[in-house]
Fold this protein.
Amino acid sequence: MNLAYLRVALNDVLEHGRISTLFQPIMGMGDASIYGYEALSRGPSDSPLHSPVALLRAADHAGLSAEVEQLCFEAALQNFAERKLSGKLFANVRPGRLLEPYFQPASLSAVLKAYGIAPQNLILELTESDPVEDYAQLAAASEALRRIGLKVAMDDLGEGFSSLRLWSEMKPAYVKLDKHFISGLNQDPVKLQFVRSMQEIAENANAQIVAEGVETASELAIVKDLGVAFVQGYLIGRPLAMPSAVPSPDVVRSLGRAEISVFPSVAGSRPRQPCARTLLIEAPAVSPSTPSEQVLELLQKHQGLHAVAVVERGLPVGMVTRPFLLDRFTRIYTRELYGKKPCSAFMEKAPLVVDIGTLIADLSELVVKKGKQTFTDGFIITENGQYRGMGSGYDLMRAITEMQVVAARYANPLTLLPGNVPIHEHTDRLLAAGAEFVAAYFDLDHFKPFNDVYGYRKGDAVIQLLGRILSQECDPSLDFLGHVGGDDFIILFQSRDWEARCQRILARFDAERAALFQFEHLAEGGYFSENRRGKMVFHPLVSLSIGAVPVSQTGYSQRQEVERAAAEAKKMAKKEDGSSLFVERRQAGQQADAEPAPASRDWAEVA
């Protein structure tokens, strides 16, 4: 469209007030009521300007944006009043408009009075279509409007030019999270962590979050459990000229359910990976011209050093290793002949040099590619290209081992299921919410002799088989599945039919394990293997024991109690021959041998 046509079309819109308004409901999570409505403007239905994006873009090009936006704003006020909608009106405004005369307190108060709308019921929703040039002026204008009862909301946090800066300066009463972060929230741990962080910031800033784009019950459940105050989206209601005054019964039922949601696992709470900085040894360096015998003396003085970096103008150019230098200088006459020579004659000219920010996982790959000698000799660590110190292969190996141990607590490397830390977090959430759930402990019977006979690879296959069956038989929106370690698994059931699911798991495991055994062992129901005393002992086929503990609001109050009870129930199940389920029907404290659990232990430690 050319500029002349745009002006004609826009003048027609302005002259005849050809703007319609749709209202999308915003629901309060606390009482499942409609808190207010966002006004969404539309241009003439028979025009290319019907879309709000096209309308406002055309207004910008034609130099009529102020007039068109004011018309949209007053149309929202008029339609809101005429439809007698209750609650708050969220009206979109570009931040810069607050500095214009129309939005000054006295002028805006008169406009609101003309439409019969109390200032307390108007929320100015600041959009981020333009960069903000003067935050101080904008903050002052916002404060002046607050003094007459208006409140400010920030739209689409996560998009635009300066979301967090605008939040900090404007101190809005409401912050609307962009739908990008809500869509698929129940399956994306990164989005979960973002929303959780924004909710924490909002609580500290005395602001309330509005989650936009909620379209599924699963997304609604997640934002509810995160403590988000308000939601908006197609699940609550589509934009309509005359919107519903109440949420649908399905939405009300979803909010009223006692179960808590299952957060997407692992990445959102996994610790940050360490880098080469954690391996840094601040060691002295030498120049290429340093006599070799001085380098030897330095190594003898610092017995912990395996090598010395050779540095020129702050840049590493080589490395002299202890074994190489000692080997040379223990030979007859070598010290007399070469002691005064520069160490550059004996240095490794292409040592491994890494930046201090290199991740441990990446560093280990570099060491492997460089060769085993690098593991022995160590490596040089720099920062911005300048020498900082040395790193040893031993320290690298220790760091990798520690990482593997920590990572296994967050996600089991064999099944990739959540480990002990996420299991603990979800158990604590269930108990804090007073939710009714069942803690079911799954453990393989006769697993060690199976490993002895068939080997660890087949043993891993059994564990993976069980993990796959458990994943398929629990409801991911209600039930939390975790891998404690080894052949132990946990499901925290909120499904009402949990017992039937357990029975299906037992039946499927007994049927599907057959593919992992030799035919003769299946026919005989087991196999012989040597015990620790060297005697041949018959062992039954691998079976599955489940210990289940129903947890009610009046039962267990601490995670350690649940862990201990589930482990005891599992031991009871293992007393039965073959695959079995034992359900602990007694409440906390009723077990005959009940005793306090340690302050903090993993599930595997109480098994």
The domain at 276-400 is CATH 3.10.580.10 (CBS-domain).
